[in-house]
Amino acid sequence: MKKTFLYAEYQVTIPFDQIDWQPINVDMKQYAGLKSKTWLSGVNTKTVGGFYEFDSVENAQKYIDGLLLPFAKQVNGNLSVKLFDGEITQEANIGMLSPFYPSE
Fold it and tell me: Do 16 and 86 form a contact (C-beta atoms < 8 A)?
């Protein structure tokens, strides 16, 4: 299975504790291939974002188009997204005991 990581950040000032994340978490789980998500909140900037793991670039792109871009429009913010090929970095990450690459 292909490992794809996605980093996303909304360029908006939203206090993290003032958003009801529960319905967003429910919506996120509807997308095929989403394996994990870590919410991020910018230090002293109140930007919001996350780090995601997907099983393919195609499923990550569907998530970007179906959830991330509409949310950016909803909060009137700019969205920065980066996709990473997790297969290339597997050996180095296993050496660092990354939880995304359990050693076998």
Answer: no
CA atoms of 5 and 83, how far apart (whole Å): 6
78-95 tens-digit pLDDT: 999 999 998 888 888 888
pLDDT in tens, 27-52: 999 999 999 999 999 888 888 899 99
Cα 74 to chain centroid distance, Å, stands at 18
Residue 80, classed as helix, strand or coil, is: strand
What one-character-per-residue DSSP string does 1-35 give?
---EEEEEEEES---GGGS-HHHHHHHHTTSTTEE
- Which residues are registered as beta bridge partners of 31? none
Report all structural domains of the chain as residue ranges with CATH numbers, in order of start. Answer: 4-95 (3.30.70.100)
Is 0.90 surpassed by the pTM of this model? no
Which DSSP string corresponds to 27-47? HHTTSTTEEEEEEEE-TTT--
CB 64 within 8 A of CB 81: yes
